[in-house]
Every structure is written in structure tokens, then in C-alpha cells.
Amino acid sequence: MISGLSVATALLTLTASVNALWPIPQSYKRGDTTVWLSPDVQLVFDSPPEVCFPPSYRYTKRRVQEAWSRTREIIFQERFVPWKFYPRGTKFEPGAGTGKVIEKVFVEQTSVDKPEPARYGEFDESYKLAIPITGGNFTSLGAYGVEAALGGGREPGAVYITAGSSLGVLHAFTTLSQLFYYSNSQPGGVYSRLAPVEIDDKPKFQHRGLNLDVARQWYPKEEILKTIDALSWNKMNRLHLHVTDSQSWPLEIPAMPDLAAKGAYADGLTYSPQDLQDMLTWGWSRGVEVILEIDMPGHTTSIAEAYPELITGRDKQPDWDRYAAQPPSGSLKLRNPAVKKFLTTLFDDLLPRLKSHSQYFHTGGDEVNKNVYNFDENIKSNDSAVLQPALQDFVSYAHAELGRHGVTPLVWEEMLLNWNLKLPKDAIVQTWISEASTKKVIEKGHRVIAGNYNFWYLDCGYGQWLDILPASYKNFYPFNDYCSPRKNWRLIYSYDPTAGLTQEQVKLVLGGEVHAWSEQTDPANIDSVIWPRASAAAEVLWSGRTDATGKNRSFPDASRRLAEFRERLVLRGVGAGPIQQLWCHQNPGGCQL
Ligand SMILES: *[C@@H]1O[C@H](CO)[C@@H](O)[C@H](O)[C@H]1NC(C)=O
Ligand SMILES: *[C@@H]1O[C@H](CO)[C@@H](O)[C@H](O)[C@H]1NC(C)=O
Ligand SMILES: *[C@@H]1O[C@H](CO)[C@@H](O)[C@H](O)[C@H]1NC(C)=O
């Protein structure tokens, strides 16, 4: 919150027809004065010496400059003319010659970036952004020393950004890109009618993610890079890649080339080490950490294409549902030296390549089937009393291997809550099954990434993908999937990952993820499955479910801003569906109930 702010111009609240920002900043004050952005606008990245000189600055500067080029390109090329948000026939564009022209964007980063990859809590993502219309006193920014950096008073006709890290600067640019509109009446012109602007912003949660399943369907690298772009425009900062599963193993592991050569759906449908590196670098440049998940011991049957001896209960048919949540059944064997050797080889190959990008790795652990272990020669049982210690042995081994590489594990909630396994103290647990799960995990002392499937599963409501036999027709009619109905953006927006927690417990919630499992999603519809619904979660995770006064954020405010942001997503090449019929956009307040 800005305190002690003194701005001469009266700042408006919600009267203009465009309101620009998604996710909404913690504090956002704006007016209704026009400013134009010069086509020659320049970035002045000016920071105190202690920020500029450490070796890490090279990276900081590269990240900021790359982000600035992208931001400039978006601002000048996206050509967003917001006619949809004004009543029919309104002349909403400013006339020629009205308003100051912004020539410079001053950016000051106030502290040195932490060495990367960072751990949770090490990066300050906050930023402040101001577009003054007079030379007035911007005390809130002055505190950061921008005035000193500029050699005294502030010039109007500039944007001022201060941030505690390069990631904060990136978020400020993302915000900036949403404040400007394209002028049809003065072609090439880019303006904002929202000046003066004062924004003081920071995320509510540190982990704002999307879980994308790239194993059940194949996604080319470019599709993943595009999704990373869209995440960054939403100020989301994690892409959880569920990169292998029972159905396919697209991830090339040079130490075990057969894994992908035989486990991928087809030749060429794999991610090479270079592809992976490209994803990590792309994410780094956009402030999105890519975290890989190799789910285990369940969801691993595709390993059997190369190493059948490691998998128990492979593709049992036709009663596969006794042995797995989905076909093909199969699980990594337990208490098995060859499996342990496999894990060591896998991690020794993969983790060093990830380590410069993320200190975290997801070992999965959901939906472990018991009956499949009746076939495992060292187990021969489906009794939990037998399986639990064997599973503990397996998971402890995997996590010790991660530990050897200095990597912290993430796991699905079942490992802790259903199997009652002892996990490394710093292990992070991802909840998905129920409202109660998050609290239970916290009570066991672990940090949580939340995402209840009843709210945050993007793949629900698309109907059954199983081929229902004639004899089962009646049981399955009308062929809903298990988590039907589809989670609409309002439902997603109404989910509070911290509901029912004490203030002390909330501290262990790192954030959340929306999930895109790919049974019925592939590159043809990925955009419309993820966007704009993931944006609803993005605002919950960045801004919080409630506003500064503690009230739930309202749909009338959110739907308008989301609709505007959706237009920008579409112009940037993301096929996000519409929020409302146009009439509602053109007639604010006319579609309320
Ligand atoms: C800025 O604020 C200071 C201290 O409050 C005041 O003395 C000065 O006159 C102000 N300057 C302007 C241009 O308003
Ligand atoms: C455990 O396995 C036995 C032997 O196959 C089977 O009869 C029993 O139904 C299984 N238990 C469960 C809970 O599925
Ligand atoms: C606020 O949202 C929560 C869910 O996040 C809901 O349970 C509650 O009823 C809402 N309160 C009001 C007053 O709308």
C-alpha cells in the first residue's frame, strides 16, 4: 500500500471504460489524462553501483534488456483498440496533440539479484511504477532514490519504475504493456488515458504455476515456449512440466537413449537436451521457472518400452482399472536394485542439466495402485502394511539421490497424507484432492502448493475419453468425466488456497497451480483449455482472493478487466475464449444479477 502519498491530481476510481490491469496490483491509482508513448521511447536502466557491479549483473541486465525489447514490441505491435469496452458509437480515442509524450522509461533496481536459481523467498518480486503528469512529488518512489538517480526533480513525460530485483522489473514491464492502447485515428500512435498512474505492487504468493501434462499428448517445444510467454503475461512464475507418464516418455535421457527412443509415441516426438535447455532459458528470460516432474512409482509404464524388467503389472487388460487409474497399468517395482540403479542413472543425467535453472524437482507419487504390486516379485502383496515400508524405501532412495544433487523434492499429497511417508523436512507437497488436504499437509509441517481439483483442474468437464462398452452404457450415460463439470473462470476465481487456515498456517502455503492434464487437450486446443481460465488463478495467486479491505474480489470488476486482458492475449496469438457477449462489455453494469 502507498502511504502518505500526495498527488495533486484527483485520481479516479472506476469510471473510465477501460481499466487495464490483470492481475490487479495491490495498489493502483490512476487518473484520466492522456499520455502518448514516443515510438523512440528509451529505457534508462540506472541502478546504484552495488547493483551494477557484481558478476550477476551481467545476467540481470540481459534479463531486463530482453524483457524491455519484448515489451516495446508488444506495446507497438499488438494494436489493441479497445472499442469493445465503450458504448456503441463512442469516440474514445484522444485527439491529436493532446497529452504529453513519454520519451523515457527510467528503471531503477534497488538491490542486487540473488544468485540463481533462487530458493523460495529469495527473490523480491515487488515493483513500483509511476507515470506522472506534472513534476509533482512522488514520495513513494523517492524513498527508493530514483530522484537521486535522475539528478533531482522528475520530468513529466516519463515512466518511473523501481523494483527490488530483475523479476520485479519484468513484472513492471508486464504492467506497463497493459496500460497502453493503439490509436486508430492517429495510426502508429500508442496512448494511455489513465495518467497519472501510481502502482505499488507485489505478489501474494511466491509460487504461481501451471501444471502441463506433455506425456499423454505430444506438444512441440514451440507450444511450450508460447505457454511460458502467456504465463509471464499473467505474472505467473512456474511451469510444472509433467513430462513423463505411463502413456509416453518424451524426455531424452542421453545416459539411457532407449527410454525416449522406445518410450515416445513416435520417432521425433521427444525433447532433446537442447530442447529442454531452450525451455529453461526461455523461462528464465521471462521470470518463469520450469520445474520438471517425473512421476513415480506409479504413472511409469512407458519405461517398460525400454526396460520391461523395471515395471510390475504392465498393461493388464481388460480389467486394467484394478491395477491403475488409467490404462496402461504398471508401476516401478519396489525393493528392487535395478530400479534404484535406474533412478541413480536418471538423476545423474538429468538433474545437473536442470540444476542451473531450478533447485526443485517433482517426483510425483500420486495414485499408487496397490494391486499391481501383487505381481512384483519382491513384494507379492497389495497389503498397505507391506507396501508402506517398501514405498518409504523407494521414496527415501529417490529423495536421497535428489539430495546428493542439492535438489529439493516436490511430491503429490498422497505420499504424505495417504501413505504417511516420512519426507525430507524441506519437501514441498502439492495438494489436489480436497479442501482439507492443504491444512493436513501444513499440520505435518510441510510447505504446500495448492490446487484442489474441484476448482483448479482445467481438464474437467470435457466428458469421458474411455470407450464405453454397450454393457456399461447405462452406467456411464451421459458420459461425464470424474471431475465434471468444467471449472469456469468464476469458480476458479472463487478458490482461495488459504481458506480455513490460520495466519500462521498461511505462511506454509507457497502458492498454487492450475492443472492441464492432457487426455483431451493437445496443441489444437491447448490455448482455449488453459486461457483465459488460468488467468483467474493468476489473479488469485498474485493479487489474492480478497482485496485490501478483506472483501472477496468482485465479478463485475474482474470480468471487465479479464475481458480486456483476454483481448490482449488474442492479439498476442493466444486463442483464449471470450468472457462475455460484447453487449455486456459495451454496457457496463448492464449484465449484473
Ligand atoms: C515537494 O515536497 C516537499 C516536502 O513535502 C516540499 O517542500 C516541496 O515544495 C514539494 N515540491 C513540489 C514541486 O511540490
Ligand atoms: C488384494 O489382492 C487379492 C489377491 O489378488 C485380491 O483378492 C483382493 O481383492 C485385493 N484387495 C483389494 C483391496 O483390492
Ligand atoms: C468469499 O469467497 C469465499 C470462497 O473463497 C466464499 O466461501 C465466501 O462465501 C465468499 N464470501 C462472500 C461474502 O461472498
UniProtKB/TrEMBL annotation:
Pfam families: Glyco_hydro_20 (PF00728), Glycohydro_20b2 (PF14845). Residues 21-179 form the Beta-hexosaminidase eukaryotic type N-terminal domain. The keyword Glycoprotein applies. GO terms for cellular component: membrane. The keyword DNA-binding does not apply. InterPro entries: Beta_hexosaminidase_sua/sub (IPR025705), GH (IPR017853), Glyco_hydro_20_cat (IPR015883), Hex-like_dom2 (IPR029018), HEX_eukaryotic_N (IPR029019). Keywords: Glycoprotein, Glycosidase, Hydrolase, Signal. Its EC number is 3.2.1.52. Gene3D superfamilies: Chitobiase/beta-hexosaminidase domain 2-like, Glycosidases. GO terms for molecular function: beta-N-acetylglucosaminidase activity. One of its GO terms (biological process) is glycosaminoglycan metabolic process. The active site is at E367 (proton donor). Residues 1-20 form the signal peptide. Belongs to the glycosyl hydrolase 20 family. This is Beta-hexosaminidase. It catalyses: Hydrolysis of terminal non-reducing N-acetyl-D-hexosamine residues in N-acetyl-beta-D-hexosaminides. It comes from the Eukaryota. Residues 205-544 form the Glycoside hydrolase family 20 catalytic domain.
